[in-house]
Write a structure and sequence with these properties.
This protein is an alpha/beta fold and 469 residues long. 45% of the residues lie in helices and 12% in strands. Strands 1-6-5-2-3-4 form a 6-stranded mixed β-sheet, with helices on both faces.
Length: 469
C-alpha cells in the first residue's frame, strides 16, 4: 500500500529552527563560496527561499562512517539550517541495497543486508554528531546562530520502501516514467557504452531515488534536494515524478528544485577526500584527529582558498586577508594552518585542534630538538585516542631492546628494518639517537618514569606509555 501522510501534521512533526538569519541570503552565500554547480529554475528558487523551505540531501550507507567527501553537501545543508530552513539528512537504507550507478564504471557487488543496516545506525549518529559540532563551531564564528539548538531529524528511506511492493511501485512510479528518458541519463549512457553494461537493478535506481524526493515532498513538504554533481540525473528524475504525480497543482503550491554541488578535486586532479588512496574519515576511530588535521595542513596552495570558503564559516573578507598574508610568505603555510585548525574544530571541536597542534609540534620537531622539554603527561594527553600511542607494561619498556619495541608496535615494518635504521643513526628515543641495535631503555630514560617516544626519521613516531601509571 502506498504510504500517505496528512501534509500539515507531517510537516509539524519535524522540529523547526527559528529564523535566526535571513532565509533568502543562503543562496547568495552558497554561490559566493563556490558550492553550487547546477540549479533548476534558479530565479524561482531564489524567490522560494524568501520563506522557510525543507531541504534534503542523501547519504550512501556503503561505509560505516562519513568521510570528508561527504562534507560538501553536508556543509550546504548546514548553511540552510543556519539560515532558518528545515533540513532532512536522508540515509539510503533501501537504495544502498541496490547501488547507485552514477560515476561508476562497473556494478557494485551484492550488498550485505546486515552490514547496510549496521551502517545506517552508525551513519545516523555520525550525521547527528556532525550537526552538533557544526553548530558549536558556527556559534563561535557567527553570533547570530546562538538560538539554534535542535538536531536535524535523520531519516532512512527504508521507512517507506520496505513495504512498497513491486506491483505498487510499477503502478505508482513506473507508469509515469518514460524509458527513453531513463536511457538518456548520463550514468546510464556511460554504462551502456561500456563492456560491463548495466543491470536492470542499477537501471531502475534513479526511480527509487526519484520516489524518495516525491515522498519527502508529499509527506514533509520538502522542496529542495541537494546532491553532488553526479546526482543531477537522479534529482531531475525526482522533479519529473513530482510534477507527474501532482499534475493539478496550482501556481500557489510549492514547486520543487534541485541543487548540485561541485565535485571537488585537487589542483593535481586527485579526488578530494583521498590520501594515498585512503579515505579521510570523520570518525576518529578510523582517521585520527592528528591525521585529519594533517590532511588539510598538506593541501596545495592552489586549493587552500577554495577549501576555506567551503569548509569554514570564516567571512570571505577574512579569507582574503589570510590569503594575502599567505601569498607574501607561502613557506609559512599560514593559510593551510588556518584551514586545518578551522576544519578540525568543525568536526572534532576545540580540544581536537589543541591535540592535533600539540602532536604536530612533537612529531615534526627536529629529533635533536631542545626547544621544548618532553613531558609524559603532555604527550599522553596529546596522543590520547591516536593509534600511535600504546599502553604497555613498564617492565617491557625496560627489558626489550628499542629496535624490537619499534617493530612490535608498528613504527617500522620489521625488526631487521629497525636494526638498519638504528645502524644508520635514524632511530631515536625521546629525541636521542639509539646508540646500537642492542640498546635497551633504563628506568631513568623514561619520561617522568612512565613513557617513551620512539621516532623513525623525521616524522614517524610512536608513544609507549606504562599502563596503570
Amino acid at each position: 500500500m502506498l504510504f500517505q501522510f496528512p501534509l500539515g501534521r507531517a510537516v509539524r512533526s519535524i522540529r523547526h529552527i527559528p529564523p535566526i538569519r535571513s532565509f533568502s541570503n543562503v543562496f547568495h552565500e552558497l554561490s559566493s563560496r563556490g558550492f553550487i554547480q547546477q540549479v533548476t529554475s534558479p530565479t524561482e528558487l531564489e524567490n522560494a527561499l524568501r520563506s522557510r523551505q525543507v531541504i534534503y540531501c542523501g547519504v550512501d550507507p556503503t561505509a560505516s562512517s562519513l568521510h570528508i567527501g561527504n562534507l560538501v553537501p553536508l556543509m550546504c545543508l548546514l548553511h540552510f539550517q543556519l539560515h532558518g530552513h528545515t533540513i532532512i539528512p536522508l540515509i539510503g537504507g533501501a537504495t544502498g541495497l541496490v547501488g547507485d550507478p552514477s560515476g561508476r564504471k562497473t556494478e557494485r557487488g551484492p550488498a550485505n543486508v546486515a552490514q547496510i543496516e549496521r551502517n545506517v545506525g552508525l551513519l545516523s549518529e555520525n550525521i547527528r554528531s556532525f550537526f552538533r559540532s557544526g553548530l558549536l563551531y558556527a556559534k563561535s564564528r557567527l553570533p547570530s546562530t546562538s538560538d539554534i539548538t535542535s538536531d536535524p531529524e535523520v531519516k532512512s528511506n527504508l521507512e517507506w520502501h520496505q513495504n512498497f511492493t513491486m506491483l505498487e511501485f510499477l503502478r505508482v512510479v513506473g507508469v509515469h516514467t518514460r524509458v527513453n528518458t531513463m536511457l538518456n541519463k548520463e550514468s546510464v549512457r556511460t554504462r551502456l557504452d561500456s563492456s560491463a553494461g548495466i543491470s536492470f537493478t542499477e537501471f531502475t535506481y534513479q526511480l527509487l531515488q526519484a520516489y524518495d524526493f516525491y515522498h519527502l515532498h508529499s509527506a514533509f513538504g520538502c522542496t529542495v534536494q541537494i546532491g553532488g554533481s553526479d546526482q543531477w540525473g537522479n534529482i531531475v528524475a525526482g522533479l519529473e515524478l513530482i510534477n507527474r504525480l501532482n499534475p493539478s497543482k496550482s501556481s500557489e503550491d510549492q514547486k520543487a528544485f534541485g541543487i548540485t554541488t561541485h565535485l571537488l578535486t585537487s589542483a593535481s586532479g586527485e579526488k578530494f577526500g583521498k590520501s594515498a588512496g585512503n579515505a579521510i574519515w570523520l570518525d576518529p576511530k578510523l582517521t585520527s584527529v592528528f591525521d585529519f588535521y594533517q590532511y588539510f595542513l598538506k593541501v596545495e596552495d592552489a586549493d587552500v582558498e577554495k577549501y576555506m570558503k567551503i569548509f569554514t564559516f570564516l567571512p570571505l573578507s577574512e579569507i582574503q586577508m589570510v590569503m594575502k598574508v599567505h601569498k607574501s610568505e607561502p613557506d609559512k603555510r599560514t593559510a593551510q594552518r588556518r584551514l586545518a585548525a578551522e576544519v578540525t574544530e568543525l568536526i572534532h571541536g576545540a580540544p581536537g585542534v589543541l591535540s592535533a597542534e600539540t602532536m604536530s609540534k612533537i612529531v615534526f620537531r627536529h629529533p635533536n630538538s631542545r626547544t621544548h622539554t618532553l613531558d609524559a603527561q603532555t604527550l599522553i594527553d596529546a596522543f590520547r585516542g591516536d593509534p600511535r600511542m600504546t599502553l604497555c607494561e613498564d617492565t617491557e619498556l625496560i627489558s626489550v631492546p628499542v629496535v624490537k619495541l619499534a617493530s612490535k608496535y608498528g613504527l617500522v615494518s620489521s625488526t631487521s628494518a629497525a636494526r638498519q635504521l638504528a645502524q644508520s643513526k635514524g632511530l631515536y628515543f625521546n629525541d636521542q639517537v639509539v646508540p646500537d641495535i642492542r640498546f635497551t631503555l633504563h628506568k631513568s630514560h623514561l619520561l617522568n618514569g612512565r613513557a617513551v617516544m620512539i621516532r623513525a626519521g623525521k616524522d614517524k613516531v610512536i608513544l609507549l606509555a606504562a599502563a596503570g601509571n
